[in-house]
Write a structure and sequence with these properties.
Elements: H1 2-14, H2 16-36, H3 52-63, H4 86-100, H5 111-114
Helix pairs in contact: 1-2
Length: 118
């Protein structure tokens, strides 16, 4: 194997443009032959039935077909000091206000409202 690699390295150093051109030609020919034999450059419809991932995707698409069904996100905050001190409460309020201004956000709840300080 090392002999082949040494030979190939020698050829590439001696004729770099020819090797690059040949490589591009091979890629173009493989693409043309692939499409010619019924291939496609699209990945649509590429599924494998009866796999756990496909079953999960089917369940999700069946139950959550509408994109407006809602989602929930949780932001975890960590502080060197207490989250209840004056500066951190102001930061939490600022974060809440910025998130609440987003178009698709319906509700934002702070740790004070949820009583979930740890």
């Amino acid at each position: 194997m090392s002999r082949f690699l040494l030979w190939y390295a020698h050829k590439v150093k001696k004729h770099p443009k020819s090797i690059l051109g040949l490589g591009l030609l091979v890629v173009v020919m493989m693409t043309v032959f692939g499409i010619g034999f019924g291939g496609s450059l699209s990945s649509e419809g590429m599924t494998i039935d009866n796999t756990p991932a496909q079953k999960a995707a089917d369940i999700v698409s069946k139950n959550y077909h509408s994109s407006t069904s809602g989602a929930q996100a949780q932001i975890i905050l960590k502080a060197k000091e207490s989250l209840k001190n004056k500066n951190n409460v102001a930061r939490i309020t600022d974060i809440k206000n910025k998130i609440q201004r987003q178009e698709d956000v319906q509700t934002v709840m702070t740790p004070d409202q949820l009583f979930n300080y740890a």
